[in-house]
Amino acid sequence: MVKGLPLEYAADILIVDDTLANLQLLSTLLKEEGYKVRPASNGAMALQAVAAKKPDLILLDIKMPEMSGYEVCAALKNNPETKNIPVLFISALNDVADKIQAFNVGALDYINKPFQFEEVKARVATHLRLKAYEDDMEAQIVLGIREIEGLNQEIIDTQQELIFTMGQVCETRSHETGQHVKRVAEYSYLLAKLYGFEQLDLMKQAASMHDIGKVAIPDSILNKPGALTDEEWATMKTHSHLGYQMLSVSQRPLFKLAATITLEHHEKWDGTGYPYGIKGEEISVAGRITAVADVFDALGAMRCYKPSKSLEEILEIFQQERGRHFDPDMVTLFFDHLDDFIVIRNKYTTAE
């Protein structure tokens, strides 16, 4: 038994030598140490034995007919399934060049013949112990990676929950529901996927923060039951830039994308939007996507300053605003996959 291995585990050792006397001597020696021993008299038999059951360690002669020990070791090390099996050469070849070649093909140790019994036992035990420690370390690393992945996912989940909560806080202040945030996020994700948007994995979270700047807008304006004055409307429009300022301080890809969406989701394809009046492809893809998602949801929701519109009315508006408010390609994708957008709307609908 070897320290570092399970108490009830007897290591499996493959001995490869074309001399029967050496096979018998080594087998007897190692069996007395409590190891399971399998003999092989040539290279081909050794590879067959390994293929049938991987040993814990291999004692390998060099000079054998047809296939040398070097060739056997090289074959084992070139196979991903067997490359980590410890190979100890045991040979009468004493030249430094022979030993160097042995290590070059992947051997971990080299024992000279005639060998000393105690030396063989000590080297075998040492390499089995090292392999056991290595395997245990690999297992611990795998376990650690899984724990890190679990913690990472927990952080991601917490981040997503916090982001949606931030979005919901803004909507609650303007007497809108958190479902609006979810719908806009889902619509944006779907449209981004249909468009082939590269930052697809970030889009859903980023879009949920599109109106984060509204936290800085007075309640008297957000919840005014009627048309805003020119001055009030000018204040309301500042929420885009305010949201951008809040989010752009971070260099993380998620918040950089969210900052862009916040700034540009009220821009229009024909240049009549705000805050900068940019047009066409000057508007980011993310801004154009979220514009469609936000307006589609807003038109169908009743607010303190307006009634809700029917689906037919909404679709008519989208047809009219193709190439004016909205990117024509986005509108085409929207109509081509309208049923999918309706599924999302129905899934996240509550009394508003």
TrEMBL record:
Keywords attached to this entry: Phosphoprotein
Residue ranges constituting the HD-GYP domain according to the UniProt record: 155-350
Biological process according to GO: phosphorelay signal transduction system
Molecular functions per Gene Ontology: phosphoric diester hydrolase activity
SUPFAM superfamilies: CheY-like (SSF52172), HD-domain/PDEase-like (SSF109604)
InterPro entries the record matches: CheY-like_superfamily, Cyclic_di-GMP/3'3'-cGAMP_PDE, HD/PDEase_dom, HD_GYP_dom, Sig_transdc_resp-reg_receiver
Record SMART domains: HDc, REC
Domain Response regulatory, first and last residues per copy: 12-128
Superkingdom to which the source organism belongs: Bacteria
Modified residues (4-aspartylphosphate): 61
PANTHER family membership: CYCLIC DI-GMP PHOSPHODIESTERASE TM_0186-RELATED, CYCLIC DI-GMP PHOSPHODIESTERASE VC_1348-RELATED
Protein name: Putative two-component system response regulator
Protein's organism: Methylobacter tundripaludum
